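Student:
Attend to each token:
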Amino acid sequence: MKITRKITAWSLGLMAAVSIMSCSSDDNDDNSGNPDITQKPYVLSLAIQGSEGGFTYYTIPFENVMEGSLTAVGEGIDQPGYYDFTKVDNTLYSIGGLDNTDVSAISQNEDQTLSTEGNVSLSESIRDLVKADDETLISASIAEGAVTFRLFDANTVSITETIAKPTSDLHAATDANPSFSGMRVVGDHVFLSYYMSNPDTWATNYTDQAQVAVYSYPELEFEKVITDDRVGPLGGFNIKSGLEVDEDGNIYAISHSNPANGYSQSTKPAGILKINAGETEFDQSYFFDVEDATGGNNVSHLKYLGNGKAFVEVNTAARAEQGTWSDSPLRSAVVNLNDETVNYIAGVPVHNGNGRRLAALHDGNYVYLCIPEEGGIYVYRMDVDNYTSTKGAEVQANFVAGFFKF
């Protein structure tokens, strides 16, 4: 059996907050039933900085995120170092970086406490962990001249196969290396988006096209690189936002070339491209001109919601005016990928991002996001149908690294 929450009669619907199929049966949650069990379906990973500068990540369950104060005090998991968090089906995964390059599965027990299982120590940090099929997870890392894929058994979170492919398949540059920006598995292919970055200066001198490497699945044989010169590279530093997939298997590729997300130059317009389900080329008939739709701005983060709609964080500054590595200033919105429109969500202040994976929860008609503002960090519940918002609980943390619901 897969590592999942032990399901009781009072817990029926499951929700996947950060997964490759954001609009699935997981999107609804019913926590009615047994009154003897304290119900804490929301789980936040709170990053708190210590006196010596390092961070500890506290993954804590909560009953209510719209009232009061959310703190790291309680039954949870604490992990010192650097961690990224994602959710596949009904299991959270913590992905370690810097000195703690491990992968752990976090599940919720019947009494609402959390437990860690299947810890795997690695020789290097992986860039992301996504669902490949019902029994397999796949990760990718790019280092030492190789793109390294690792296949994990979803039942045990153990590595079943490691396959390395040369980065020379991706680019012939001698002054830059490929940097991971997104990965999705659709059918019998793995799609890997990347941008080129100088390993010493972080300069991005190759910004004249989007690039996606295509590998076979499950063999992971390199097939080709597909390119499109209507936009620049896909995604950005550490935000893992290059590729998203809809419920039909169509892949959307997000390009912005933002200085706020790691780019030293921008030479092409911002926009969203599409790879149709079952195909391995960009659809030349589709181009979402984000700059035109937003009045000169561009999308930094995108989370697919379903039925052609996606939650986005729009950088409201022209690229020439953005602060380098700032991941700001951001404004929350919903885009329709079919009719190529943007609707901003009322009541959410313009804010800074965290410079990492978007920690947003999609639950039914709502997206929950922790917004830093003057005086603190607050949960905002955003109605993605009516484009309104409600301010919720205050969060006691330096930033929020993950926001999920069981």
